[in-house]
Description:
little secondary structure
Amino acid sequence: MRHLLVIVLLLALLGAACGDDDTTGATSDTQTPSPSTALSDDGAADTGDPSDGTGTADDDELPPPTAVDGVEQLVPQVVSRRAHDTTAFTQGLEFVGDRLFESTGIHGES
Length: 110
């Protein structure tokens, strides 16, 4: 009989331990950050005229980067803009000398 009582107590403790992780009822105060640039319906950054790929974003509108916990924040610098098929899936970018090549995969199969 004593063994049965021990088994029942162990099962009750195991059952209680397997319950919901959030038993405190506390809610999170974390807020979702808002993006610094507007997004289009497909989730891509809306930087201007999507038809020519050049965009018209004003770099001065973005807030300055800040370091977080000693991690350096890198800021890319746009040196030129090129027309780009926004429906293409970019599979790779490669620099050869001072030229940038974009790969969209095997023609007609990607």
